Amino acid sequence: MGVNDGKIRLRDEKKAAIIDQLTTLGFKSMKNDDEDGQSAKNFDYLLSMPLYSLTKEKVTELNGKVASLQAQIKELESKTIEDLWLADLDKFQESYQRELDSKNLSAQSVDMSSLPAR
Questions:
Q1: Is residue 118 part of a domain?
Q2: Which residues form the domain of 68?
């Protein structure tokens, strides 16, 4: 991860030195145009992270999310366009049917309430 394993030093380092470390280690920068219209490397997305993001618990949580997302990507890549289309249609039909059912139940409950009391 960099900071947690000691590859990146933050304490008592100038921002330029930290940026050099991030560049050397291959971290991706976001390109921003500065005041002169020059494109400059920007690591603010990393440098402005809350410190709790560096805790063991948070790193474990984020690693779990990464693994889950990678599994989802692998699953999607294994499907054909037709499979994805059919899955979307199935979800639409289920949602549409639920909406129809809820409207029918609402209509029935209104009809029942208009009946005279026994």
A1: no
A2: 50-78
